[in-house]
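Two entries, shown back to back:
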Amino acid sequence: MDDLQSMSNLLDTPHPRSIRSFVKRSGRVTTGQLKARHEIGGAYLVDYTPQALDISDIFPHHSNETPLVFEIGFGMGEATALIAQTLSNTNFICCEVHDPGVGALLKRIGENGIKNIRIIQHDAVEVLEHMIQNLCLDGIHIFFPDPWHKKKHNKRRLVQSEFIKSIVPKLKVGGYIHCATDWEAYAVQMLEVLSSEKTLTNTSKESSGYAIKPEYRPLTKFENRGLKLGHGVWDLVFKKN
């Protein structure tokens, strides 16, 4: 228990962050999450460093033919774990700043024997800027980012033109950005921002411009509950020219 208590104290230490697109939320880290972090964290957690990351260092069998996807903000990791199992030949670098979410995904990784996920517990904007080389990624997933639904807070939303311009160079030609949101006003903004980026093309054939949900993205329990209550969900998939 001393090890788990020490790990608990470590997890309670605030993470210095400059990003304003997400807020640092408190949450209870369970014993199971602590145990997963203690037992397998060393194999699946990657330290942040302001230097370019050698992908083969974190995925020993990675090659240029192996798809690499970067996920921004995975919450409690339910969808992330399922996607990684569905796309078992794809490697995933996943960023999340919240301790319970990181612990929950590590627990899912351990329970399901998932080998193709690595977690960086740091501001995804800084990770993309400093650790991910240009023409490195096959995909970027941004699922259900904070909608900042009050109009005066809209400027804090992650999906803005400046941010999209900064991450497009990280994609290979033909690589994609997949966004999903359950906040219609944010979906409208996402569609406008992505459509205005000249290096991207909308893959949707729908008149609305929104994509049919790709099969690899599962419906989470939270999303299913919302759909049953009549809430909408909008997917957008744009590819780099």
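entry 2 starts here
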Amino acid sequence: MQKPLKLPLTGIITPLVTPLLDHNTLDVNGLERLIEHTISGGVSGLFILGTTGEFASLSYSLRIEMIERTCKLVKGRVPVLAGVTDSAFQESLNLARIAADNGADAVVLSPPYYYKTSQPELLEYLTRIMIQMPLPLFIYNMPVHTKVMIEPESVKAASEIPGIIGIKDSSANLSYFNNVQYLLKGNPDFTFMVGPEELVPEFVMLGGHGGVNGGSNMFPRLYVELYHASVNRDFEKILPLRQKVLQICATIYSVGNYGSSYLKGLKCALSVMGICDDFMAEPFHKFKKPERTKIEKLLDDLNYKELLK
């Protein structure tokens, strides 16, 4: 029987990249190395098939394989959260059932993309889907991609729907956090995680539960240490750790003039580090040699081998 999640979930959750060898082939060996790398780095859980995992560009067969292999490789050592966002209601449920059958601990769901939903429509959607949802659910506020902001009042209303246990917010808005936190003050077990890495110290010191940070694919210990320093308000540790995170954001994620620079830089860095392949799902492609050379230099500037110790 699946062990229930301890709530609220706290710490650093790694939104795993999806290692690929080609457009429809998983880099299985790379996935295993990535999972062992992140778990050994002390992360509190893994989130697969999110934005960093390129879920919207993957075939259903690839998504299913990613769920099956990740759950098998993790072996219950940390919680596995499976992204089930889709434009089709039934496909989200299909993925959730596969996640449940393979031992995932929870699912993560954004508002269905393409059509812009109103707040009442979104709450009706969540109410209807939770009737059939086989696992606890985290809502995922990602307005830049879904065109829908889950308003603070809607987060509170969603927190009262049975089975919805938390939110991942990628709006990069501390005012939003403050409003949501105030409205949730009567529900301390409802998990509140933030995506943007630059905000983790402020977010955690203000009462947030942790971060779902792409950089923890590369340097899990750095992000875990930053989280713990923030919990303890240890500013002597926070400042240099945060500076490293800001350096990563300003360099690795910013090579080339692409909307996809974050993903390309992250995957390229993981390839340079020998963890997994950097093949990108369509419509993107991996960095070519000049950009890869830049990533190599930027990793050296970070003294990345020290960060891996």
